[in-house]
Amino acid sequence: MKTENPPDILCQTAKLPWIEFGAGIHYKVLRTSAETGDWTVIFRCAKGSGFPPHYHHGAGEYLMLEGVMDYRAGKAVAGDYGYEPLGVYHESTTFPEDSELLFTNHGPVAFVNPDMSISMILDWKFFAEKQAEHAAGAA
Amino acid sequence: MKTENPPDILCQTAKLPWIEFGAGIHYKVLRTSAETGDWTVIFRCAKGSGFPPHYHHGAGEYLMLEGVMDYRAGKAVAGDYGYEPLGVYHESTTFPEDSELLFTNHGPVAFVNPDMSISMILDWKFFAEKQAEHAAGAA
Amino acid sequence: MKTENPPDILCQTAKLPWIEFGAGIHYKVLRTSAETGDWTVIFRCAKGSGFPPHYHHGAGEYLMLEGVMDYRAGKAVAGDYGYEPLGVYHESTTFPEDSELLFTNHGPVAFVNPDMSISMILDWKFFAEKQAEHAAGAA
Amino acid sequence: MKTENPPDILCQTAKLPWIEFGAGIHYKVLRTSAETGDWTVIFRCAKGSGFPPHYHHGAGEYLMLEGVMDYRAGKAVAGDYGYEPLGVYHESTTFPEDSELLFTNHGPVAFVNPDMSISMILDWKFFAEKQAEHAAGAA
Asked: Which residues pair with A60 in a beta bridge?
């Protein structure tokens, strides 16, 4: 069995670039899966930033690393863990302090317009492509 | 859609008890899934502690929150993220410093004897039962 | 362990109603998961029917039970199994014979317009709601 | 998006070999996933055959294609679908008629001894290796 031991992935996050998401939010890409659609990132959200209304077409999970996230479930502070179930709609997610969180989503997140039509899909592919662009740019 | 918005789970980890795993290792249970077998915990590992040889019957993922984990892939330090693929065998995992890590496993981990027979299965049920016992004890 | 043995689900498909999907296509709902977003159905597709262009926001799997499905990968006949990876786009899927197939999708399928904007999302919730409506109607 | 359309997999099961599992049971391997541990097979079980006691370390799903499977949930006949939840223990599974079923398991199945110790693990790797051996033998 040991001879076929599959490779571990150790991701030294300190060496990863922060990529701009927009309006005070940056991210580092830790992992994306083309098979399951999972994507894991660290979001860094400046005081006063936030995510627009979105719908989870896959469950999400986070661990607050620092700061505060104010959203539907309440105020999550450093050390708090949250599970955002499949199909949940988050109308308002804001960061009243400079914040960082580890975030995994199991599938796509859809940003929606006021009429609930989809304005943008955030999925593993979005993050995989941004990561590849930045790796190419750094070379 | 909002009327059926499924419930978010916000887990205030500071209020959760540390449960003894054995030999310098404690954990807090953040989430377990009876459907998928996923389990997410925070491990607190005292300097000099470690996990015995084990085999992942489901992929694992971690984020080092503090300290150092020395294992097959190298030394993971605070901020590092790791993905431990399905089927990986970890012969030695030690903590040369007091450490904490967020850890999710997608299915069971089997602790194994030198002949690779299974000595103990660590799965969502193990953690769900320990969590329930402690909640009952605290009541 | 036996005392906690979780319940098996045995679904007698012969007793399930065929529900109309539209234009020669009907389905029976075998299972939907609110946690993972998986949905499993049997589609019955009349000769000459077909699915409009769609994009898989989750992988799909099928087993042809009878007939022929003509799609991007070729012609699948009774007994054939297919895996449709996450992110695949299927421009044309037609049934040149009366056909039946078992189909599971791990997440949503999006029917798209010629400009690739989304016209309709087919997910576990769609099927769970239709199933509930028919169960209520039959009562 | 079309230029990156990921490959569909169409598996012509009629061309796949039946591989002997033991004691009247054969199988064809349709798919195995090294990432998730899912494995999908068709089991062909001769009249009077059966599976020994086993424990599901991952949920299972099946569709009876012909014959009868007599197990904990009752008698499943051609056309019936079953969902076997994570952690279910099946003490006796027998086939009173020549039978075939499509079967997917999301992770390992453990065959157990009367004292519930594990005698054998059936996982994606078992099936991937058997499939590779037979493909090599056929070449």
From this structure: A84, A105
Phi, psi angle pair for A30, to nearest 5°: -95, -40
pTM of the model: 0.94
**Averaged pLDDT for residues C44-60:** 97
Rounded to an integer, what distance in angstroms lies between the CA atom of residue C53 and that of residue C69?
Answer: 15
Write down the pLDDT at residue A136: 84
Nearest CA in chain A to C120: A117
Per-residue HEC secondary structure of A84-105 comes to ECCCCEECCEECCCCEEEEEEE
d(CA A97, CA D62): 50
* B114-137 pLDDT, tens digit each: 888 888 999 999 999 999 999 887
* D3 Cβ contact list (under 8 Å, min separation 6): none
Beta strands at D93-94 and D89-90: parallel, antiparallel or unpaired: unpaired
Tokens of B132: 């329930």
- Mean pLDDT of the region B41-59: 97
Residue pair D28/D65 in contact (Cβ under 8 Å)? The answer is no
State whether D87 and B125 contact (CB < 8 Å): yes
B80 burial level (CB within 10 Å; 0-12, 13-18, 19+): buried
Residues of chain B with Cβ-Cβ distance to A87 below 8 Å are 4-6
Can you tell me the ipTM of this complex? Answer: 0.93
Angstroms from C79 CA to nearest CA on chain D: 6
Q: Which residue of D has its CA nearest to C3?
A: D89
pLDDT tops 80 at residue B139? no
Quick: pLDDT tens for C95-105.
999 999 999 99
Least confident range of A23-27, B115-119, D56-60: B115-119
Q: What are phi and psi of C132, to 5 degrees?
A: -65, -40
Surface-to-core class of residue A95, CB atoms within 10 Å of its CB (0-12 exposed, 13-18 middle, 19+ buried): buried
pLDDT of residue D107: 97
Is the CB of B6 less than 8 angstroms away from the CB of C33? no
- Residue B22's region, left for phi above 0, alpha for psi from -120 to 50, else beta, is left
Entry field: residues in chain B: 139
User: Which residues of chain D have a CB within 8 Å of the CB of C35?
Assistant: none
pLDDT at residue B19 is higher than 90 = yes
Query: C6 and B34 in contact by Cβ < 8 A?
Result: yes
Is C59 in contact with A121 (Cβ distance < 8 A)?
no
The subunits that touch chain B, with at least 3 C-beta pairs less than 8 Å apart, are: A, C, D
C-alpha–C-alpha distance, residues A63 and A100, integer Å: 9
Rounded to whole angstroms, the Cα distance separating C29 from C39 reads 8
pLDDT band at residue A76 under the 50/70/90 scheme: very high
| A34/chain C closest Cα distance in angstroms | 7
